[in-house]
Amino acid sequence: MKLISVICLVSLCLSCTNEYNKDTIANIVQEWQGREFKFPRKEVFSTSTEDTRPLNFVNKYKIITYTDSIGCVPCRMQLKQWSRLANTLDSLTTSRVLVIKYVCPQNITDLKYDLTRDGYRHPVCIDLSDSLNKLNHFPKDDRFRCFLLDENNRVILIGNPVQNPKIKDLYIRTICERLGIEYVQNIDDNPRISVGTIQKGEPKTVCFEIRNDDNAAMQIDTIYTSCECTTAKIDRMQIPRNETAILSVTYTPDGTGDFVRDAYVKVNGKEQPKIFAIDGTVK
């Protein structure tokens, strides 16, 4: 099982990056596979609703992500995407898996604003001294700063599940297998466009068609995006029956690597937005 997981994850990582060669990725994965993860002794956790709270790590599977202060931190944290994954895992496993973010921010106020704005209710450790990174010495690439840990804090998988649907499926499938839960893959019907490779600093715009197949007119209530680097606009706020509107989503990258960015559209007073995603790689 361990060898199969290594091979699968290496293959998945190779499918979404041109930055590393096969041997480099294999070395990263094998270096971390089965490694004991070290945690600081004193940790403070925050959510959008609580400043601090205790967290019981014992006998829990954990997904740990680490974000430093370089570049667009809200873009790299991807709070909306992580919230969706954490909610899925809570539903599948009856909250037997913790999704924990460690962040070393330059500005605590900005970080707490982002948590509140996105309603992120899962634990976030504000690690001002960067102690988690100092203990574990993470790779420099964000794609390899996410880890699935077992109950004994040993690494099962490494890779970012919110940036790659296949890695996400591997994480969920592995968790369900280990917990003895039947897993039927959920087909995500949210529209998603891959833009391939783009250049840092150059805006990329994609267009989605929103069609109203209901009997009544569709009212667009709100449009917002997953980060400040992404903007969205629509050509009409009310869509008559059997007509369409065009949603334009523009992403201006300020860093390099793989990315996923979302635009959210709320309609007809519904709380749950429709999600329109773009993904690709920035050189």
Protein described:
The protein is built from seven helices and 14 strands. It has helices at residues 2-14, 22-32, 73-77, 79-93, 108-117, 131-136, 165-179, and strands at residues 45-46, 61-67, 97-103, 124-126, 146-149, 155-158, 192-198, 204-211, 218-225, 230-234, 238-239, 244-251, 257-267, 274-282. It has a six-stranded mixed sheet. A five-stranded mixed sheet has the order 7-14-13-9-11, with no helix packed on it. The protein has a three-stranded antiparallel sheet with strand order 8-12-10, with no helix packed on it. α5 links the parallel β3 and β4 (124-126). The relative contact order is 0.16.
In short:
The chain has 283 residues and is of the alpha+beta class. The chain is 27% helix and 30% strand. The chain has helices at 2-14, 22-32, 73-77, 79-93, 108-117, 131-136, 165-179, and strands at residues 45-46, 61-67, 97-103, 124-126, 146-149, 155-158, 192-198, 204-211, 218-225, 230-234, 238-239, 244-251, 257-267, 274-282.
